[in-house]
Amino acid sequence: MASSHGSYGTRLYLCGPENLTHFKRMLFRDWLRAHPDDTAEYAALKRKLAAEATGDWKFYTGGEPDFVARIVQQASA
């Protein structure tokens, strides 16, 4: 993926274990670990977004929320 922004480097996200966002991220992670079909779908989405984003980080990350929300909802049920 060509980028006019250069490297974004390492991204570090910190929050306490009681944080709702942290809890949702762990639900998402654990769901994907246990559901290979959803993992493959997520990988395909990420590849598609990377190809279409042409270095636009907001576009790339903006294409994920619906997928992530659906998985978190399933994992929470």
Automatic annotation (TrEMBL):
UniProt keyword annotations, A-Z: Plasmid
InterPro entries: GrpB/CoaE (IPR007344), NT_sf (IPR043519)
Signal peptide: none
This protein's record includes keyword Cell wall biogenesis/degradation: no
Keyword Cell membrane: no
Family annotation (Gene3D superfamilies): Beta Polymerase, domain 2 (3.30.460.10)
Record protein name field: GrpB family protein
Native species: Sinorhizobium chiapasense
